[in-house]
Design a protein that fits this description.
Chain lengths: 151, 353
């Protein structure tokens, strides 16, 4: 019978009318991200062994690990620095990290916009007792605390 | 309307010293005052309606497409239309150098004038019809045909191939679809026995015409969509074929006027549908004008539902559909209505065999 397709079409669009909307009102309502979405990075400085595998895995040389050896010849971390301006968010560093839990891992914070060029850097420093601390290497201007995303 | 015009003519005659009634008798201040009040009322209704309709259209379009629609300016985006209007008013007027200037400038004014005229004819309720005409529906159809003229003027005056093609298509489409529309209305006129919109509305106090004339209702909706050049019949401004059809070359306030006219016509055509098929302002509990506006908006939502569901059909298929399907069906409907009326009259004893 003619016209049944039309009625079916009308039914489909009316169903769509009442369904929840796909649009996300982003600035007011944060989006529901998937479990494994790749946003910014989180760094666990307590589990890091300063092995520099992440730095070697990185295709763009984003990661710079600075460390010193203490009296017993053990690697001691000073500063972990990422230049997110060159980062591809490919995740090779996360794959390369041998520690459990991962020392470098993705987090869901995706709002990485910033106003100042210095805020592109993510820098984590580890403080050792005064006797063990290494001399501060000449580093480019970096913020005192890691900026946790946002603008 | 006629009385008002007569008084104006009398007044002009008296003013010129022509042999007529004396000047003091011919000054119809009261009539002029009331005509002015009705005019202002129609204009205010038109503007409020257009603002609401554009918001409803965009919001409903969003909902049908699983979007949210305008929601930034004001509560629920209600002030979005005002915002856009102010933006449009601030834009530059650009007129093509080769335009037919007079025709180009008159066209947007004409479309709004026609819309206001149609608002003046609608029976919003008993006693609040601005102009009561005993040939109301005929006048309504005649006036709504003038829209064709303004669209054609815009298409011709722009001196642009897209505008001209859009205007030509509009003329072909609207004139063709007026025939089934008028034929579907004639059935109701035969049942009611009147051309007056108020009488037709009040005659449906027991049963709505949509139950008496369902085929005519379907034909009316299809041809009203075609008259309003709404999808699936929006060939006149098919973006993929012509840029925007007849208003390609318009900008600023003239484009606003076209836009206003389009949505004002949407309201008046839906209101005509309500008067003809849904009992006009009849309804329990609420005041009549609330019923009228409410029914009209439900009808508009129905039209929007159709608009945002169906695709644009091809031009030749549209014309074929009209001439080969709609007009024969409406003629058959008319015949059946006439036979039915006679049988009804014989059954109730109004006439003898």
């Amino acid at each position: 019978m003619y016209g049944l397709g039309l009625l079916k079409g009308l039914g489909v669009s009316m169903k769509r009318f009442w369904m929840p909307k796909i649009t996300e009102k982003y600035p007011e309502v944060q989006p529901k991200l998937p479990e494994r979405s790749k946003g910014s990075f989180q760094y666990n400085k307590d589990s890091c062994t300063s092995c520099e595998l992440c730095s070697m895995a990185c295709p763009n040389g984003v990661i710079k690990v600075e460390w010193h050896k203490d009296e017993s010849g053990k690697k001691r971390l000073d500063r972990y620095r990422m230049n997110l301006g060159h980062c591809l968010f490919c995740g090779l560093c996360v794959e390369a990290c041998p520690t459990t839990p991962k020392s470098i891992d993705f987090k869901r914070d995706f709002a990485l916009g910033c106003w100042r060029k210095e805020d592109i850097y993510r820098v984590w420093t580890k403080e050792w007792p005064a006797a063990e601390s290494a001399p501060d290497p000449a580093a480019p201007a970096s913020p005192s605390a890691p900026a946790q995303g946002g603008n | 309307m006629v009385g008002f015009l007569t008084t104006i003519f009398n007044w002009v005659q008296g003013f010129l010293g022509l042999p007529a009634t004396s000047l003091a008798d011919a000054l119809p201040w009261w009539d002029i005052l009331w005509a002015f009040v009705y005019f202002v009322g129609a204009i205010i209704l038109l503007i409020i309606n257009v603002i609401m309709l554009i918001w409803i259209e965009r919001r409903a379009a969003g909902f049908f497409q699983e979007r949210v629609g305008p929601n930034r300016v004001g509560p629920f985006g209600l002030l979005q239309t005002i915002n856009d209007t102010i933006k449009l008013l601030g834009k530059e007027w650009i007129m093509p150098a080769a335009a037919d200037k007079l025709v180009y400038l008159i066209a947007p004014l004409l479309i709004v004038t026609v819309s206001v005229t149609m608002y003046g004819l609608l029976p919003y309720g008993p006693g609040i019809t601005p102009v009561t005409l005993n040939v109301g529906i005929l006048f309504f159809l005649a006036i709504s045909s003038v829209n064709t003229l303004s669209v054609l003027m815009a298409g011709w005056g722009s001196n642009n191939k897209y505008s001209l093609l859009g205007g030509m298509r509009t003329v072909a489409q609207i004139i063709s679809y007026e025939i089934p529309m008028a034929l579907s209305i004639i059935g109701i006129v035969m049942i009611t026995g009147s051309l007056d919109l108020g009488t037709i509305a009040s005659a449906q106090s027991h049963v709505w015409n949509v139950f008496v004339q369902p085929v005519a209702f379907v034909i009316f909706v299809i041809s009203a969509l075609a008259e309003l050049t709404k999808s699936p019949f929006d060939m006149t401004e098919a973006e993929q074929e012509f840029v925007a059809g007849y208003h390609t070359e318009y900008s600023g306030i003239r484009f606003t006027l076209f836009f206003m006219g389009e949505y004002a016509n949407l309201f008046s055509m839906s209101a005509l549908g309500v008067v003809l098929f849904f009992g006009g302002a009849n309804g329990p509990f609420l005041p009549p004008w609330v019923w009228f506006i409410g029914k009209t908006y439900v009808f508009i939502l129905f039209m929007l539902w159709i608009r945002w569901t169906f695709l644009r059909i091809r031009v030749d298929k549209m014309m074929k559909f009209n001439w080969k399907i709609l007009i024969p069906i409406s003629l058959a409907n008319l015949l059946l209505t006439g036979v039915g009326i006679k049988i009804w009259q014989a059954a109730t004893g109004a006439i003898r065999w």
